[in-house]
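Before going further, learn to read the protein records used in this course. Taken together, the tokens spell out the fold as the letters spell out the chain. A record is reproduced here so that you can trace the correspondence yourselves:

***
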Amino acid sequence: MVRVGPDGEAPIVSDIPVDPGYYDSGQVLAAFLRGSQKGDGVQPLVEVGQAYRLIKDVEPKVCHTGFMSTPDGERVQIDFSVRKGATQAEKDLAFFSALCQKVQIDYLKLGEIAVAAE
């Protein structure tokens, strides 16, 4: 609630207690960006985000080290993480994703081929 004083006086701001709501997360974010939030670091921001399901709960992760050998015998080591209980396909995808961050991958179109329809 805002009450404005007479003839240009500074406004008087009064707080009215209300139940916490979904939009409180925006106020916590604004306080964080201003540097005036209560608590340490981003923890209050994460807590309000999780409370209103704006941030998914953190799943446990497992860290791995993967190795790959190139045709000329060079061994490449890549560190990556996946969710606990990940399938082999998920591990392979996480490894490849981490590998793509370490090397440059380019694609070159060689041409088109015709495939006969059956």
Observations:
- The chain has three helices and four strands.
- The mean pLDDT is 77.
- The two ends are 72 Å apart (CA to CA).
